[in-house]
């Protein structure tokens, strides 16, 4: 391991970009499928701004809570900077105001809960 790897972290210290429980939401078709899946079980969409320190902190804290989640839920990750049009579609289709970071919980095609910033927690899913 080089000196710089020790200071800044080498490849063996790097975490995957996103945990494996996330499904990426990148297209309108992904959004439509997620809403369709909400008729079978709850889904949650995490809207994240990759340039925002608060959003990164909230995402990290939320991911730490996932292990304790005992409900069947599909978790979707939406990168707002790359897919802002999908975020706009969510607001338009579900009648919910855009915020970032934001967690939106959907069941039977309807928003049953949402939270933003430090209010985001797995408790919104239960």
TrEMBL record:
Q: Would you tell me the protein name for this molecule?
A: Bacillithiol system protein YtxJ
What organism does this protein naturally occur in?
Chryseobacterium oranimense
- Species lineage, top-down? Bacteria, Pseudomonadati, Bacteroidota, Flavobacteriia, Flavobacteriales
Name the domain of life. Answer: Bacteria
- Family annotation (InterPro entries): BrxC (IPR022551), Thioredoxin-like_sf (IPR036249)
TM stretches of this protein: none
């Amino acid at each position: 391991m080089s000196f710089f790897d020790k200071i800044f972290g080498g490849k063996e210290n790097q975490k995957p970009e996103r945990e494996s429980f996330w499904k990426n939401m990148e297209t309108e078709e992904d959004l439509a499928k997620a809403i369709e899946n909400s008729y079978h079980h709850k889904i949650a969409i995490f809207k994240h701004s990759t340039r925002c320190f608060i959003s990164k902190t909230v995402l990290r804290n939320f991911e730490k809570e996932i292990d304790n989640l005992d409900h069947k839920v599909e978790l979707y990750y939406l990168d707002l900077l790359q897919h802002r049009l999908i975020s706009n579609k969510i607001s338009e289709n579900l009648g919910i105001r855009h915020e970032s970071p934001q967690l939106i919980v959907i069941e039977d095609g309807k928003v049953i809960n949402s939270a933003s910033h430090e209010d985001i927690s797995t408790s919104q899913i239960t």
